[in-house]
Design brief:
The structure holds two protein chains of two kinds. By secondary structure, chain A is an all-beta fold. Chain A contains no helices and eleven strands. In chain A, the strands form two sheets. In chain A, strands 2, 4, 5, 6, 9, 10 and 11 form a seven-stranded mixed beta sheet that branches. In chain A, strands 1-3-8-7 form a four-stranded antiparallel beta sheet, with no helix packed on it. In chain B, the strands form two sheets. In chain B, strands 2, 4, 5, 9, 10 and 11 form a six-stranded mixed beta sheet that branches. In chain B, a hairpin with a 2-residue loop joins strand 6 and strand 7. Chain B is globular. Classes of the chains: A mainly beta, B mainly beta.
Chain lengths: 112, 114
């Protein structure tokens, strides 16, 4: 049972570089999410997708874009990375708004 | 504006003791209150969750107490064990309105001393 799979696990970027974080789930969930986790800040919602074909902004969307490629996959793109985007990024999926969210293992991103 | 406030930030409890973590929320639309447990290098995992129609939910050594009028809920870990050492997050979400997804507290780093 893979659950939620994120790639890559670690990444170092230079300021201004771009990259895409990949996420896939095999639980047939409708909802998918991207969170970032920073020390002392908890997890904050970047973007979410309530269903295939829809995406919406969360609490901290600036500097990010997302694509819900199909029901399984939800990617997060940083077009021009900034040091403030150094964080651990988690993808999650759920059957709906008020149900258990399953998290991936995280991507530790450092922007220098 | 922080919608879910969690305390304490860190907590040290002796093995066998009771660990208590508290959360308060502001948004009265919230109607789902889960607790997540996170070990270093791992993603958060659901520990226990409660809906506002009950005041308490117990699963093994873990209990959520919920006070709707005070807009507060807490996690109690009975007979705390070293394996419980982790970071705990309270969270909340709403069936309707606002963004989909969980609003998290800032987390509590729990250490159980042998």
């Amino acid at each position: 049972n893979a659950g939620v799979t994120q790639t890559p696990k670690f990444q170092v970027l230079k300021t201004g570089q771009s990259m895409t974080l990949q996420c896939a789930q095999d639980m047939n969930h409708n909802s998918m999410y991207w969170y970032r986790q920073d020390p002392g800040m908890g997890l904050r919602l970047i973007y979410y997708s309530a269903s295939e074909g829809t995406t919406d902004k969360g609490e901290v969307p600036n500097g990010y874009n997302v694509s819900r490629l199909n029901k399984r996959e939800f990617s997060l793109r940083l077009e021009s990375a900034a040091p403030s985007q150094t964080s651990v990024y988690f993808c999650a999926s759920s059957v709906g708004r008020v149900a258990e969210a399953f998290f991936g293992q995280g991507t530790r991103l450092t922007v220098v | 504006q922080q919608q879910v406030k969690q305390s304490p930030q860190s907590l040290i409890v002796q093995k066998g003791g009771i660990s208590i973590i508290n959360c308060a929320y502001e948004n009265t639309a919230f109607d789902y209150f889960p607790w997540y447990q996170q070990f270093p290098g791992k993603g958060p995992a659901l520990l226990i969750a409660i809906r506002p129609d009950v005041s308490e939910k117990k699963e093994g050594r873990f209990t959520i107490s919920f006070n709707k009028s005070a807009k507060q809920f807490s996690l109690h870990i009975m007979d705390s064990q070293p394996g419980d050492s982790a970071t705990y997050f309270c969270a909340a979400s709403a069936t309707r309105g606002g963004a989909d997804g969980l609003t998290f507290g800032k987390g509590t780093h729990l250490i159980i001393q042998p």
